[in-house]
Structure prediction request, 108 residues.
Amino acid sequence: MNKVIMQGNLTRDPECRDLEDNKVCKISIASNRERGGEKETCFIDAYCWRGLAGVVEQYLHKGSGVLVEGRIKFDTWVTKDTEEKRQKHVIVVEKLVMLDKKGSRDEG
Prediction:
């Protein structure tokens, strides 16, 4: 089973683009954890596709609180300039809940 649930805040505005018959939005999430008085922050990129990408593009921005559910994917690529192999884990989002931040509710 490959399932992840993560709550956090967007570290920047979503990066959205249209592909042939699809839309994709990349979001970066920071999730904080406190244990024994020590704080730890986890940063991870996530990808939203199709209709969900449209919702992300319209309503989310840097600082927005989200709860995402999806699967972990291992991405690999080669850089164009130095031809170095790079890799990272990302979340492919299947469900997303927009969370209100205390005191930052927009009117309208």
User: Anything to note?
Assistant: The chain has a mean pLDDT of 91.
